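Example 3.2
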Amino acid sequence: MKEDLQSNWTLLILTIPGRQTALRVRMWRKLKVLGAGTLQDGVYVVPARAELRSVLEDQTADIRVAGGTAQLFDVTGRAADFAPLFDRTAEYEALTDRIRKATPGKRHTVARAARAVNTLRREFEAIAARDFFPGPALDQTRQALDALGARVERLRSPDEPRPKHGRIKRRHPAEYQNRTWVTRAGPWVDRLASAWLIRRFIDAGATFKWSKRVARGAGRGTGFDFDGAAFTHVDGKVTYEVLVESFGLEDDAAIVRIGAIVHFVDVGGISVAEAPVIEALLHGMKRRTRSDAAFFALAATLFDDLYAGYQVEESRR
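Structure, written as tokens:
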């Protein structure tokens, strides 16, 4: 940060009557949550941002009603002079230490570990929200939290494939006809959508084997969506998206739109409006069926209808 870099700031100068202890504590807590820096007792500063000033305006009104005084001032000053007031390194370090201690062990249930991750993530987001000058500490804490989340997710879904890294190779559908396609038993959105994509656009004569031991079963077929499979997660893409790219289906907008839903329901990321509805429908189908094959049959109809609907929408654009 350059020493002479000028920035705009909002100052809050307040006084609270000594008898108003509860108000003093309440204001202090609100300023802490907001991320205000303390210049001295009764003098606070935040970067000049509309959303921060709005909160301070509400606080000044509360203080005045309670018999105190409060004034806001817009000032310009060197960023180097004010930035140290907002250093969150100690907060990140304390949170990172808790993240490391939260690593699930033999005595931890998966549900308990998942709750711990959610709590830690909320605390991280709260610190990040008031970190006006983020630096390496934020990134290091996020990485530690992501690593913990990944470990807990692995405990929750031990058979989920680990993403491979590298270039996705182009394939020719003609070389993948009338095959037996093998994947894990107990299919969910990525496996279901991938199987639908295979039969609908890659191998019309495909048969599917939902195996509890994919490492053995894949030797007699073409594997997808498990570690070591011919088609599985690559970098940030789920198996469905890998199949789309592998077989050159990216130009079909309806296929790509379904892929966005599959990705979000399977691993999260960018939200898609239709995703919660599709997920709810799949949950309902799963409860109504007693076999993986029957579940896939219903899901395939759903994806057929979704694809047809998207084609109509795309044709109107």
